[in-house]
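Subject: for your reference before the review

Hello V.,

The reviewers asked for a structural picture of the protein, and I figured it would be easier to keep everything in one thread rather than splitting it across files. Below is the amino acid sequence we used in the manuscript, unchanged from the supplementary table.
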Amino acid sequence: MTPNDRDKANSATRILTPEQDALLDLYIKKLDDYFENVKASEKMQVEIETLHLKKILTK
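And here is what came back from the structure prediction:
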């Protein structure tokens, strides 16, 4: 197999261009960051609600 044949085989199996692949990686990273922030917000909300419940129960 010549180098040219390998290039043709690689390009035939590649779905995204390198630019599209880089953009997809960036999008996935941003999405991961977003969901990490959502999880952190939910955790904070649970902590706040727990403190409120403890305050109510101790009265």
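For the response letter, the relevant points are probably these. Helices lie at 3-13, 18-58. Residues 16-58 form one domain.

Happy to draft the paragraph if you're swamped.

O.
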